[in-house]
Amino acid sequence: MSSKNAILVVDDEEVVCSSCSRILNKEGFTVDTRTNPVEGLKMAESGEYSAILLDLKMREMDGIEFLDQLRKKNVEVPVIVITGYPSQESANASFSLGVYDYLPKPFTPNEVTDSVKRVVSRSQAVKSPAAPAVSPAAAPPQIASWEALAGSYRFFDEAWFQLGEDATARVGAVLPRLVEGTPKSFSLPKVGELVYRGLPLGAVEFDNKARRPVASPVTGTVVEVNEHLADQPERLCQQPCGEAWIARVRPTSINEDLLFSKTRNVVFAASKGATQGEPELLHKLGCKVYLAEGLDQALAALHAHQSALLLLDGDSFGKDGPAAVQSVNAAFPGVKVLVVSRIQRGLEAAYRSNKIFYYAVNPFEDMEILDILHNAFRSPEKPAYPEEMESKFLPKWINRIHITNRMGSKVTLLSFGELLLYHKGLGRQILGKILDHSYPVETTRGIERCSPADSFGQARIRNELCKCSRLIVLLAESGAGIPGRIALDATKDLFASFAAEEQKKLCAIEVHATDTKAPLSFDARTTDALADHIFLAMVTK
Predict the structure, then answer these.
(1) Residue 154 has pLDDT above 90, yes or no
(2) CATH class as words, domain 6-127
């Protein structure tokens, strides 16, 4: 069998296997299917496939166990996870085992073919002869213009990205109305800088000195920034998906970025001719809008496009509107319903007695729609691991975390000074993620007063290198940057005295902080994203 166009589908539902086979055969792929994951694993271990479509929930063996067994055999075939039960936890587990894409059920034929073609193309590019290495600090040459690929904006919470024909991505954010004060300026990343998904890309600064970080939706190298935002941050509310893009980034792990992002699908239910430019404005705010006339079309569109938000024009539905909302709630209990009614018909109480997300007279005039979209599409806040009681006898600081990951590698994270606390903050979040995934862990508490650059610190690093396969040194740096931003291997001079074989086992994660002598502390989302990056650095190599 030629591996160039061979696909394996492993799903315990025969209808899914046959659907994928039919869809991909039309695109020129040869497809093998298995409803028994044990049989599918044996076929996958042959290494003869360009990609594997794998269900997560199966009876004989779940998808995570399948992946774990496959990777233990050193089979690096690209895997696309397909599941009817998508969650951040399953995405994280899949990602740690090298999944290339994540496809929630039900999916359309285009979603399957687009995912497979993208994954196969990327996999073949990786196997092609490598281009000469380019230093991350060296900015790629500027291009005269940027053209977007056909496709929707992808969102990571309020941050968005759109892929371009040159394989770069424009990134930006659709923020709620800025209520912290009057925007004064916007802190931009620098060309050539590495930015990381979930960590600050930029920040809005207000006249009251408050600062709001804006997370990056992708990981990659900044190749261009929108200088106009530096002193005109109000553009973020006026044209967030237009002229107010923040930066252009060359992604380094676009399949992972796609895995953790989603489109903003909105079904707009209104009678023909009733709209007054609202769909166009929603599109300018990054939404993919599907128009529906009447209840039946709205229900069909919600099913077909997996929309999370239904915008119902109350004036079009009249007195039948509340009953329409009841029908939507019964068929799609997870869909948020926004009712817009310019003409007051005395139906607000009837609407609110049903389960609706919001009732608005005209949210488009004063851009209240920004707040509504923010609340409708933001991911549920992951509860932080609760603080523990501070011990009266043991030190509260962490200087060493050691684990054995799924690949059998012994990995150590070293911290100097007072950067990590055991009972709260970044240290608590890292330990929580490790314990949640049941990795064997050793934690050493106390303060290392030495510096990683002095003789005592270097000796400590050398001593630890003898005990592990990989050593990560956590550092803090102050300056004019945005707190929470990180740099990997930014201090290679720190390891200059180490032998080449030792340097291969070493990695430095440098975190920008306002106070390098205090425990690392940021807003909840930045702390969680930073803990994720450190955790994944420990478990994926």
Answers:
(1) yes
(2) alpha beta
